[in-house]
Amino acid sequence: MTATDPSQFSFNNLLADWLADRMTTPQIQPILEQRWLSYPWRTDAQPIANSPKPIGAVAQTIQAQLDQFRSLAPKLHSFCQDSLGWQTFPLDLMWDLWLPLANRLVSWQRAVGHPLIQGLIGGQGTGKTTLAQILSYILEQQGLQVCRLSIDDLYKTYADRQQLQQTDPRFRWRGPPGTHDVSLGLTVLEQLRQGNASVPIAIPRFDKSLHHGAGDRIDPEWITGADIVLFEGWFVGVRPIDPIAFETAPPPICSEADRAFAREVNTRLQAYLPLWEKLDRLILLYPVDYRFSQQWRQQAEQNMIASGKSGMSDAEIREFVEYFWKSLHPELFIAPMRHQSNQVDLVIEINADHDLDRIYCPAA
Known about the structure:
By secondary structure, the protein is an alpha/beta fold. The chain contains 12 helices and 9 strands. It has a 7-stranded mixed sheet with strand order 1-9-8-7-2-6-3. Strands 4-5 form a two-stranded antiparallel ribbon.
């Protein structure tokens, strides 16, 4: 994911020049202030205000972020190279998204007065796991303890999923509601929220490579607590909808069998609501066209095959991705969340090139 607009490339260079002391802070200050006022970071702890902060307050905020930026940029650059394998480093994205979002999480954590359970929802290929890794690194550099937990870590055991598949063959792949241990998730999130540093917490972990790709649980990771929990997944925070919507559902929900499966998954989603109630906030990573997920999955598989690893064919990818769309169709379940301030706190829209399209808070 990289931030773009007509002047984005020069903005990236501007930040590089400032870091290299080829430009001074007074030279770039007006540009940064103008840019800041166009983003939802204009307030410290609340959603977008009707009017921007006074210029003097913006200048102070900009200076604080510049100090942060100079301190963290070299370290974060190395992290992205070493841990994520990035060849280039988007300074513009660090400025526009990563730093202000990390600071927003800190302010949210202070406001709730207990460990923050931050939900992060995004479909396949949206970059939610990468974003969680980067935010974790930034927050840990500020001295905070961060726990990353994926909905995938809550999958039922291989044996339990095999039993589910025998009972209902429609659940042939892991992923949809019904394939997770919700009670395990509730226990873990409640323990994290309590924040008792004297009691170690077992964070479940899942290895997707086991059982020829079917995956299974592995030994948990033990931690002593966290200031911020980043809980991410492709349907974290998604709520059941009126079943009548499936009568006119978009493709690939086409047959009566498809509609019956969608209704079953919708019913099973009800069991996840207590888990979503543990969330303090929810951020939505939203592709401007949900069908990008298929394109991104094909690119990922092609890269794996090019590197000598095994991967799915285009036909297999299409069937796999459409299985998820049949279970929780993005147009029915995800798209409406962009406009529901009682469900989502921040929306980050992404275009076909994984570029940052826009950031906004749903209208109240």
